[in-house]
Design brief:
By secondary structure, this protein is of the alpha/beta class. It contains 27 helices and 19 strands. It binds zinc ion. Zinc ion binds next to loops.
Length: about 725
């Protein structure tokens, strides 16, 4: 192993064109944000209105608090894609060095190395210099920042710094070369060959690999090594598939002081870091090594393992048993809701769904696929001899950490590459009191007063699958559960068990169906009836009959929003009179991902986002938007946990009248908004984003945008917060 030596940057000044002639390499905001594109809920990226790439003299007098183009992508959703960025997933597109310097300078300010006044002064100085100088160079020359301080700050913020920008700012790369590389990257992406910026810089010899490694080692403080197979702890490599390591250009070295030393060709790519953490644990000490050294070591390892292959075969069964156990334990620990075990052409991919989003867990050798599938099928009590038909099964797994039982539903689906297995982890979740599900005060009190506390009538809870309807339903049932009430349910299946109520799971195999169960419910003298879900006209009519005979009925419905729930009933040919006289309220809901509490950073909506909301800046007065920077706690997604978003429609006389008159959905919506105090999903989510609980990106991605939201102050008044 050899350690790098530091070097002095080249003079950055020589051949720069004046900055104000710079073409903008940033017209496509996805230039380094490959994820925004694939996000179905977000419109195609439009040109952003960014701060200017040049610094005209007038800009020099502005305070240096200009925020750079705010991040918009959602890195987690892209975790499974081949990364096309070199550095951080959530950050502005590569831009000219003026902004670059500012970005790094902001970190210096944040660290208390530099004062705002000094920064303002340096910006003014730069604007007056005819020769182009980098902001960092000026800060150095003015004696405001020593190279030691600069290095410390760069090291501290290394995961947030963009490689191209850094190279320009330090004088290792000419600005025009960076622009050329970015243009090339764009071209390649359009021809379906996405490449990381670092790779383009190397391939086109804008910078030599040893130079690049030196900069990363010297400025960002990664120890540089030249690994050899002899240095590597084979046990670590045995955990991984060498092809998987090669795809990511990473190489585990050894465990030292509780940390796993891992060499990366690109130690600041958050997705690769994340993949490595999933495999080797979160305590990773990153090192840097050349691609060639990593590849050669892995190839040597592969050659050696091939000669050892028969020995590996022997304990394959034991290996698979452990693999499955570890996978289930890791999924439980990561609070995953589903595990996908997917055979692909050359490997088996395992992904976890956490907070509603799939991400890679690990990939394993295809050779192990049959043993792996068999092991899961044995645990799930499925037929291991059957390989051509879909199957299902069930596993009860004890979480080794909490000791809690987790029910796992197993589904085996036959694909062209073999059996794909999806494991759904059904946790015996604790009941959340209604006060804690995330309703704003006035919405919550109306849900109590105008819905739950009424003696009869139907309460509909609507939303697509996986939006927390069931949790809310159970919270409401639990609220109603008292000694003086009889509650009877029919569910498919029972998901939470509540003491003191009569719960029934449907079982079509023995003819316990909705149709056969309902007449029996009515003979149970219920006060409250819970129908798991309205699926068809039969169950809808049953709910209405029960409500007409003086019962309170709680049920869920698979529709987009509150008005959609009413419309669905109307479209089932149910008399509008029946609907208006039985339905008392409709609650629509969604779950958005919560900004990670460990790494929040303030966020300013950009003009495009304002436009999409139909807002002017003043409509957002008092807002403090936020976005996670990404940290180990949130697995670099910037999100942890979820936030409920609600739209509560209480059917008042005007709304009932609109239903009776068979008004259009648009009219019913308008009347509800104007007369019933309804706050839309979008408005509720927007306010939660403005309070830093979730992000605008989540709001745009998951909430229907049917009406222009009212100004924030108005929404606050409606929901009763200040
Ligand atoms: Zn975080």
């Amino acid at each position: 192993m050899s350690t790098s030596s530091s070097r002095t940057p080249n003079s950055p000044t020589a051949s720069r064109p004046p900055t104000n002639e710079l073409p903008t390499a940033r017209n496509d905001p996805s230039a380094e944000e490959p994820t925004a594109r694939n996000d179905p809920g977000i419109e195609p990226p439009t040109v952003r209105l960014d701060p200017p790439t040049s610094t005209p003299p007038s800009a020099a007098t502005e305070p240096p608090t200009v925020r750079l183009d705010p991040p918009t992508s959602t890195p987690s959703s892209a975790a499974t894609e081949e990364p096309t960025v070199v550095l951080h997933g959530r950050r502005p597109p590569e831009t000219a060095s003026t902004a670059t310097g500012l970005e790094i300078a902001q970190f210096l300010v944040e660290d208390g190395v530099l004062t705002r006044e000094q920064l303002t002064h340096a910006i003014r100085v730069r604007s007056k210099l005819s020769a182009e100088k980098t902001l960092l160079g000026i800060l150095n020359e003015l004696g405001y920042v020593s190279s030691e301080q600069q290095r410390n700050t760069l090291r501290k913020h290394r995961v947030s710094i963009r490689i191209g920008a850094l190279l320009v700012e330090l004088g290792y790369l000419r600005e025009q070369d960076l622009r050329a590389a970015l243009a090339l990257q764009q071209e390649l992406r359009e021809t379906g060959r996405p490449l990381k910026l670092g790779d383009i810089l190397l391939e086109n010899q804008f910078i030599a690999e040893n130079k690049l490694l030196e900069v990363l080692a010297d400025q960002l403080g990664f120890t540089q090594i030249t690994p050899e197979l002899g240095d590597v702890d084979r046990k670590l490599l045995d955990k991984a598939n060498p092809n998987w390591c090669l795809q990511r250009y990473l190489l585990p070295i050894r465990v030292e002081n509780g940390q796993t030393l891992v060499a990366f060709a690109d130690p600041i790519d958050p997705r690769i870091r994340l993949d490595a953490e999933r495999l080797f644990g979160s305590a990773i000490a990153p090192l840097i090594a050349s691609k060639r050294a990593i590849r050669e070591t892995l190839e040597a390892y592969k050659r050696q393992s091939q000669t050892l292959a028969p020995a590996i075969q022997v304990d394959e069964t034991q290996q698979v048993v452990e693999l499955v156990h570890t996978m289930l334990a890791d999924a439980a620990n990561a609070q995953a809701s589903d595990i996908h075990v997917e055979p692909m052409k050359d490997e088996v991919r395992i992904r976890f769904r956490c907070d509603g989003v799939l991400g890679i867990y690990k990939t394993i050798d295809k050779r192990l696929a049959p043993a792996l599938t068999n092991r899961i099928k044995i645990l799930g009590k499925a037929d291991i001899a059957e390989r051509r038909r879909h199957q299902d099964g069930h596993i009860t797994f004890e979480d080794p950490v909490t000791g809690r039982q987790i029910d796992i539903r197993v589904s085996v689906y036959i694909t062209i590459h073999g059996e794909k297995i999806v494991l759904r982890l059904l946790r015996k979740a604790q009941l959340v009191p209604l006060e804690q599900i995330g309703m704003f005060p006035r919405i919550l009190s109306r849900f109590f007063d105008d819905a739950l506390d009424l003696p009869s009538g139907i309460i509909l809870i609507t939303g697509p699958t996986g939006t927390g309807k069931t949790t809310t339903l159970y919270s409401a049932v639990n609220y109603l559960n008292s000694i003086d009430r009889s509650i009877t349910t029919v569910e498919d299946p029972v998901e939470y068990v509540i003491e003191g109520i009569a719960q029934c799971s449907l079982n079509p195999k023995i003819d316990v169906t909705f149709e056969t169960t309902l007449p029996n419910i009515m003979r149970q003298d219920p006060d409250v009836i819970v129908l798991g879900e309205i699926r068809d006209r039969f169950s809808a009519e049953a709910a209405i009959q029960a409500a007409l005979t003086g019962h309170k009925v709680l049920t869920t419905f698979h529709t987009e929003d509150t008005i959609g729930g009413l419309l669905r009933l109307m479209n089932m040919d149910i008399e509008t009179f029946m609907i208006s006289s039985t339905v008392v309220s409709v609650l629509a809901q969604r779950l958005l991902r919560r900004v990670c509490p460990s790494c929040p950073a303030p966020y300013q909506p950009n003009s495009t986002e304002l436009q999409r909301l139909g807002y002017k800046r003043q409509d957002l007065e008092g807002a403090s938007f936020s976005q996670g920077r990404g940290c180990a706690e949130c697995r670099y997604t910037g999100y942890r946990g979820r936030v409920g978003v609600f739209e509560l429609l209480v059917l008042n006389v005007m709304v009932k009248d609109a239903i009776l008159r068979k008004c259009t959905s648009h009219e019913i919506r308008r009347i509800s908004l104007e007369t019933s105090g309804m706050v839309t999903l979008l408005e509720d989510g927007l306010l939660k984003a403005a309070r830093g609980e979730t992000t605008l990106a989540e709001v745009f991605r998951y909430l229907p945008r049917l009406d222009k939201p009212r100004p924030l102050a108005e929404i606050k008044r409606l929901v009763g917060v200040t």
